[in-house]
Predict the structure.
Amino acid sequence: MRLTTLRRITQVSFILLIFLMPALDIFRYDTAARELIVFGHVWSLGLDQALYADHSLRGASHIAVRFFLKAILPWIVFLSIFPLLGFLTGRLFCGWLCPEGALFELSDHLTLRLLGRRSLFNKRTNDPVLPAASKTAYAALALVTAIVIPLAGGIALTGYFVAPRTIWHQIISGEFTFGVKAGIIGVSIYMLITSILVRHVMCRFICAAGLMQMLLGWVSPVSMRLSMDTARAKECTDCKGCDRACFMNVLPRMQKRDISCVNCGACIDACNRELGPGKGLFMYRFGKGCAAPEQTCRGIEKAAAPVPMARHRS
């Protein structure tokens, strides 16, 4: 299975998870009841009124421990997810799971079909050239996408703060409370603007989760990254397929770390199409190790091998 196909499956699966979490009471905050719902149960500190009435050292210690275990520790664990992902996998989350990233890629594709370039503003040298197709069909698809996806996102994300049943009851009845109306409209406008105007600029310079992964992946000695088998560089046909496949405008053949790379593997698929399945020059690696078929790891292994010291005559 091509990496791009597998990546689409993971992106769609994660988007469905995001949509279903509040509906299935996996995780949401009910603003009406002022309760945090986790896996169908109210997440509370477990402190009753009797504990607050106990002013002894034992009572105060019990409250402090419960507060740390139920409030502070879960928040620390949640905040550590993206730094840990960055340290181990670089920006893999951005390329394989991020819902916004998937939306931006869809917008790129539709713009490419309609205007012949990924960006609304200018054409880049690495924009792919696609075969001619009916622009009317893609214009209709772009219009439907611009309406349906932001509205669906607005409804789903508002469900993290208002019970989904309440939201759908208001949609069916046509009578909206201010909170539901503001949530759906606000999220919809945000998604529409970012998908049309901002796109991957958000990934590079604004998204906090992406920046954390970028920085940790940059300094990590073990992080996953994409590399080229330099020992087989002469096999490159200079087709520029890897350059055109990269929606983050990374130049994969440049042997340096690029903080914009999201480990999507599009360059791997592009090179395999040009040189043959399993014969491409690009691969994933962790630190100095190589995670690819044996024939595409030689350059990495050669670069990682220790340089023998010269022997001196006595």
Notes: The chain has 13 helices and five strands. Confidence is low (pLDDT under 50) at residues 307-314. The longest strand covers residues 224-228.
